[in-house]
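Need residues for this backbone.
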């Protein structure tokens, strides 16, 4: 198809709000047919608890069956199946040994091309050995273990091993800095850190152990042991007594480890994510409730079938890598692909090469990756055989129609449904997403809530907005099994953040949304100070705190502006001590501050642009005029009244006009 034809396609999408019904070929083989979907919705409407109880009995193996379904006696700390016992690792691995021991659980490819295929039996043995090794190092049920690893199978092994013995893991994305790692170790009160000598990324090495050493230089008093996977083989510092090589930890350990049966509500993991304050929050997930939504969404939304090869490109450092790499697909008995490196190494065909080579059938990635790869043109994907792909997915941010159409046309060859999945770290699993064999899709819409997910768009008073295309708060009106249980160590912040309105009845997602005339959901953006950079969540306050921690910075305000590939990019307005930096000095200062933020948080948080002024525009009551700053960052005309500003000149300075 020529470029011209594709741009007219895009126009028609915009004008006609085109619908894409599932192709007959896909629909005829899909797990969930129209009748099934209708029955699920009906059951959820008529008997909400019965609906979840049936699913929990069908999809989870219990060592002690539950009789309680939903316990709301301590709302909004809802509990599910809380008199039942089970183990997540047994559900992801042992459950399949009878009939799938020789099936591949994980197909791994390193950035340098090394390949490792791991069967369910081998995964079982690796997880058991490592779990025994953890126990030998004194790790017990309830202990917090930080995992700071590259995308390697051992990252999943470490997560599963923690789950097996009831330890609570918290994975920290390898792109986060030493400072961020230290904050998380301290907040979680972790006793162990599992890391690696490094990982291969972008042709270089990510120095994970070096960052870990830096993090442990001060504080982190609870931390006793560090386990280090040898991945790159380059030299790292090992501190005697504290640091242990992974191979020594598993040396001589048996390949059997009885899973520790835990209460359904036992915390499976903490995952830190950004919010409205300067401090990331430890989202706490349960065992059974989390796993339930993880499994059913792999079956319903990704239509995972026995012969599928599922590749979710997310890093295990994010929730997507938890639910659609480390837990959900395994619980569903699937085969997952893991890739260590960057999508453009050695060239922009790497993803498509992996799809061809490992015969990927279901592919799930973020719009930012699609946009980045789209820029390299159609030749890369066209030179690989993508004919096995039957389903595509996106997550993390709204997808623009142009990227959607490219994905549909060039990757999906106009045959594959695209599931645009809305959800959050806090919801644990897909909430609003099409069931691909049934629900017609519209580019840019995550379509309809899944059965049992009572999502809605409401006004300030919590009333459902019935008028089509009118924006409001995105809420979920009933508790669901995989929702976060609390913020680690901060119940009050949990209540204030997620249940601040509507008498605490509805879960407030923090997004605004609208529904169209067909009831389809369109996510409009965050209502809090959270920005989405390349599909990664960041709090503007976090970046502001990092900036003001620099000795020369007096005050900082951070906003975002749209970015072609990243979705959003950060623009920071900074006031320095002494003279306002200009010219070369401003350039140097900008570079220094970008690096500084990289060290404080991680590279993803580096501002795209920094502007200096003598002051920030504030209202009479002293509030920073963020709307004005956003307009300046976007180069828009200023429509706000600035006559009340103490120093009108700062607006000109921030615009670069003075
Ligand atoms: C945004 C990622 C539009 C949204 C799983 C949400 C989306 C935040 C979509 C959660 C989507 C996620 N369409 N926006 N399909 N999926 N978002 O916690 O703003 O990293 O609140 O979880 O990403 O980001 P998080």
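Answer:
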């Amino acid at each position: 198809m020529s470029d011209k034809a594709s741009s007219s396609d895009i126009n028609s999408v915009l004008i006609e709000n085109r619908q894409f019904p599932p192709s007959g070929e896909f629909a005829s083989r899909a797990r969930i047919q129209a009748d099934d979907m209708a029955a699920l919705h009906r059951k959820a409407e008529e008997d909400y608890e019965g609906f979840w109880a049936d699913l929990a009995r069908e999809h989870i193996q219990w060592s002690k069956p539950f009789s309680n379904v939903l316990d709301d006696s301590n709302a909004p700390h809802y509990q599910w199946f809380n008199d039942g016992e089970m183990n997540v690792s047994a559900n992801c691995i042992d459950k399949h040994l009878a009939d799938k021991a020789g099936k591949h659980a994980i197909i791994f490819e390193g950035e340098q091309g090394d390949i490792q295929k791991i069967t369910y039996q081998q995964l079982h043995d690796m997880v058991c050995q490592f779990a025994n090794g953890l126990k030998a190092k004194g790790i017990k049920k309830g202990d917090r273990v930080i995992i700071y690893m590259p995308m390697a199978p051992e990252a999943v092994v470490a997560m599963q091993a923690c789950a097996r013995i009831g330890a609570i893991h918290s994975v920290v994305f390898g792109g986060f800095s030493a400072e961020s790692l230290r904050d998380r170790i301290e907040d979680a009160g972790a006793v162990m850190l599992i890391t690696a000598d490094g990982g291969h990324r972008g042709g270089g090495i990510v120095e994970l152990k070096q960052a870990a050493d830096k993090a442990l230089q001060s504080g982190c008093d609870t931390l006793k042991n560090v386990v280090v996977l040898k991945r790159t083989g380059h030299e790292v510092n090992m501190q005697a007594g504290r640091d242990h090589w992974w191979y020594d930890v598993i040396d001589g350990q048996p390949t059997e480890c009885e899973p520790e049966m835990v209460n359904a509500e036992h915390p499976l993991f903490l995952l830190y994510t950004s919010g409205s304050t300067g401090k990331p929050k430890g989202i706490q997930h349960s065992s059974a409730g989390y796993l339930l939504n993880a499994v059913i969404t792999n079956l319903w939304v990704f239509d995972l079938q026995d012969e599928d090869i599922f590749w979710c490109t997310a890093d295990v450092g994010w929730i997507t890598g938890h639910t659609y790499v480390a837990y959900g697909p395994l619980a569903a008995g699937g085969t997952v692909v893991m890739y260590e490196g960057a999508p453009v190494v050695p060239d922009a065909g790497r993803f498509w090469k992996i799809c061809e080579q490992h015969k990927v059938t279901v592919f799930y990635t973020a719009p930012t990756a699609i946009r980045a790869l789209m820029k390299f043109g159609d030749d890369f994907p066209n030179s690989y055989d993508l004919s096995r792909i039957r389903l595509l997915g996106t997550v993390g941010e709204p997808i623009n129609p142009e990227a959607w159409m490219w994905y549909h046309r060039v990757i999906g060859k106009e045959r594959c449904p695209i599931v645009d999945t809305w959800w959050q770290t806090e919801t644990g699993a897909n909430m609003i997403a099409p069931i691909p064999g049934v629900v017609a899709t519209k580019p840019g819409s995550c379509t309809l809530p899944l059965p049992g997910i009572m999502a809605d768009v409401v006004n300030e008073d919590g009333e459902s907005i019935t008028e089509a295309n009118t924006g409001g708060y995105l809420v979920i009106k009933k508790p669901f099994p995989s929702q976060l249980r609390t913020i680690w160590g901060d119940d009050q912040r949990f209540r204030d953040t997620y249940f601040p309105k509507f008498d605490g009845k509805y879960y407030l997602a923090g997004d605004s949304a609208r529904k169209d005339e067909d009831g389809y959901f369109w996510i409009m953006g965050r209502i809090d100070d959270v920005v989405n950079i390349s599909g990664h969540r960041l709090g503007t306050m976090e970046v502001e705190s990092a900036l003001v921690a620099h000795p020369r910075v007096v005050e900082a305000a951070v906003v975002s502006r749209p970015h072609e590939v990243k979705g959003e990019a950060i623009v920071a307005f900074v006031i320095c001590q002494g003279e306002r930096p200009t010219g070369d000095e401003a350039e140097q200062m900008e570079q220094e501050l970008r690096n500084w933020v990289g060290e404080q948080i991680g590279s993803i948080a580096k501002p795209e642009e920094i502007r200096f002024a003598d002051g920030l525009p504030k209202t009479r009551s002293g509030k920073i005029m963020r709307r004005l700053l956003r307009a300046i960052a976007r180069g828009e005309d200023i429509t706000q009244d600035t006559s009340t500003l103490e120093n009108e000149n700062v607006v000109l300075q921030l615009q670069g006009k003075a």
